[in-house]
Predict the 3D structure of the following.
Amino acid sequence: MSPLNIVILAAGKGTRMYSDKPKVLHALAGKPLVQHVLDCATSLQPQQVCVVYGHGGEVVPQAMQQYGAKFVIQEPQLGTGHAVQQAMPHLADGSKTMVLYGDVPLIQHSTLHQMQQAGEGLVLLTVNLDNPTGYGRIVRNAEGDVQCIVEQKDANAAQLEIKEVNTGILLAPTAKLREWLGKLGNNNAQGEYYLTDIVAMAVQQGLLVRTVQPAQQWEVEGINNKMQLATLERVWQQTTANKLMTQGVTLADPARIDVRGNLVCGRDVEIDVGCIFEGDVTLGDRVRVGAYSVIRKASIAQGTQIAPYSHIDSSEVGANCQIGPYARLRPGSKLHDDAHVGNFVEIKNSEIGKGSKANHLSYVGDCTVGARVNIGAGMITCNYDGANKFRTVIEDDAFIGSDTQLVAPVTVGKGATIGAGSTITKDAPAGELTLARGRQVTIPGWQRPVKKSKAAT
Ligand code: UD1
Ligand code: MG
């Protein structure tokens, strides 16, 4: 098979998005539209990817530089044929060139692969629409062979009746494409250089034009406004939800889950409503995620239960842990098996040992907690002096009384007990009880103040 080039058209202004951001950088499932297309393009292992962007769109190459694609500017924008022309100097003959669109984000590898398999010559991706208004129509002869594409604005009454339309996506031999593009004119209703005019040229040269249809219509839907963006977002989320359910995941409501990345689930995973998963997330066997939890770049091992409204970011959670409700694991947190992190507990850049518990109202930051430690309600690590951060170490089997402050750097030794309400500034020795708080006093006969009456003043 000859090498493949991919040209992604992304020069359109996106006026109807009413945004300062170029249209193709708006996100679908947490990822810029053009990145969806670039990912799909990359999956075909092309020799060269060329993105044609428009005036004011310099942020597009900046945002997408990790792809190693060639970025070419099209200025002014004189039509789709003119756009592809801008890429041609970067594409070698002896290859094939596929044209994709930065605002048609959900095109699938399988469909493009089918186009590659369709044979030599020109291959068009077409679709049949009940309402073809606005699209270029695929005109065929009596034998059913494609003759040309006629744009809506150039079509006659009979052509307007045609339901088969051009998606815009096509595959052509690069040398032929170069030749045809060189011959394009703009004598049409819009005064543009139409890419679609190459179809009639191919037919004139006696080439057979083949067509392929996408497996799902949403693959070829473009985005011009926020409604279309939201509609395709839902389509994609429903598709993702269906995939998860097919693999055995229980979703309380497939219409109320958002996956903005890659969610991998084991067996018997249950996800309640309103959960958001971002980046790479792994849920082990029997993990349950409570309602309205947000989990980002995290792995949760088997049997762990996450109660509602928990936030987990860039963290690793062991097996059979209990998290939440209202727990927050910030980046760099690692929970070993059987750990418990309860309501209004914030953990940051800390390790919580096996079977340790912090069940209520705590801040555990820059801390290494051993195994079987009990962190009482309201314990706080004072890890920051206003300029620098310091670590706290709590060794195995320690018991930290409620409302304790551990002023880092500080170590609580193995099996140590800290009395409630202590402010610990020096290391607490292993196995001993350490207290650091004011002594309780009772003032005999003390009277509460009484409110003075207005008349008396
Ligand atoms: C185009 C096709 C039409 C097809 C439809 C599918 C042509 C002439 N017509 O029409 O047959 O049914 O798409 O949606 O190709 N673009 C550039 N530079 C330009 C012009 C366009 O990069 O100078 C990009 C746009 O950003 C957009 C895409 O090309 O992503 C399509 O352009 P658009 O103007 O929307 O073409 P349509 O008139 O919809
Ligand atoms: Mg369009």
